[in-house]
Amino acid sequence: MKSYDIVIIGGGPAGLAAAISAKKSGIDHILILERDHELGGILNQCIHNGFGLHTFQEELTGPEYAERFIRQVKEQQIEYRLNTTVLNISSKKLVTAINQKEGMFKLQAGAVILAMGCRERPRGALNIPGYRPAGIYSAGTAQRLVNMEGYLPGREVVILGSGDIGLIMARRMTLEGAQVKAVAELMPYSGGLKRNIVQCLYDYDIPLKLRHTVVDIRGKERVEGVTLAEVDERGKPIPGTEEFYSCDTLLLSVGLIPENELSRGMGVKLNPITSGPSVNERLETNIEGVFACGNVLHVHDLVDFVSEEAAAAGRNAAAYVKAGGLKKKLGWEILLKPGQGVRYTVPEIIHPAYMNETLTLRFRVSNVYKNCYISVFFDSERVHHRKRQIAAPGEMEEVKLVKEELLKYPDLKQITVMIEEG
């Protein structure tokens, strides 16, 4: 059985950035395990541009962005195994994996970085009435079919859900000659980035129907059409608002779920809001030496932020290995709490003794707020109060916490982040 200082589960953007960061931090024995036949993860099918503006200060496509990290992994001679599925990770960081070449094998890790990404929510989770005909795809599956396999899923399309993948596929299908008749969104706001709403829908005159959902799918062998209806404040269809759209394809962009089956199996505590691990200031889970980053931790909107977060996880895992394991002598502990208008925070707990000079606190708001303030409270004292013209659930927010500032409050027990309306 081979041993490695750090084993990284997942060779997508998070896993690659974490590996490079750990290597640059002085760790040599690193292994990336990737179940696909190539590194890069979901970026390989994201052929649109808009990546890299923060990381490289230039606009790249998904494959171009991935290639820059893949090249660094190879230059740094970081070991990786493709077509390898991880079956189990024990709480002692014993990794069991399988591939066609080696069969089943075990690896002992000094530290583990979870970077498995996320998956799309399927139709089965939606309770849409109707048959199960051909022509229903998740938006990500359709993206792979068009961009990598060379297939056009359909000619007349309705999209349910206005997440970024759904918005991007509305434009992609249009460019390939399909007619996108509507994008329906259950919520009163879009779940995607503002720039994607403008560039993918408004620029192509594709209607966005907020507070609408699919209430019926017509067709037995192939989709023949769908019925949309307006919903009330509880998300229930309003009788009399039904509208039929003939189409041969329904794309679902109804949310992403972090891939945490392995995490759950090894006893990692999960956040019920993000469905990702609960982590501290080092992005370490409740299991010592097990770190998490990227979309397996919480769903990001920009891959640049995934890379930034993963680099921090790599550095922290490297520090853990170099120290021979940071034992549970954590000392002063501060709870981070989402307040009014905030759904969650990452991290959830911090130990000032182990913080870097600054810590990026990331969160999402629960609704669309205009002319509001992002406020940070140290216990009951408001210490930050930043004006925002608009804050929306589709765009991640962040606050920088400064270690020097925290040390001025030695009795601090809780930090609360909230939205205060103007």
Describe the structure.
The chain is α/β, with parallel strands linked by helices. The protein folds into 3 domains: 1-120 and 255-323, FAD/NAD(P)-binding domain, CATH 3.50.50; 122-254, FAD/NAD(P)-binding domain (3-Layer(bba) Sandwich), CATH 3.50.50.60; 330-422, no CATH class. It is 20% helix and 33% strand. The chain has helices at residues 13-24, 62-75, 139-149, 164-175, 194-200, 261-265, 303-322, 403-406, and strands spanning 2-9, 30-33, 79-81, 85-89, 94-99, 103-114, 118-120, 136-138, 156-160, 179-185, 208-210, 212-218, 225-230, 243-246, 249-252, 256-258, 290-292, 334-338, 342-346, 349-350, 358-365, 369-378, 381-391, 397-402, 414-421. Strands 1, 2, 3, 4, 5, 6 and 17 form a 7-stranded mixed beta sheet that branches. Strand 1, helix 1 and strand 2 form a beta-alpha-beta unit. The longest helix is centred in the C-terminal third of the chain and has 20 residues, at 303-322. The radius of gyration is 22 Å and the shape is globular. The mean pLDDT is 94.
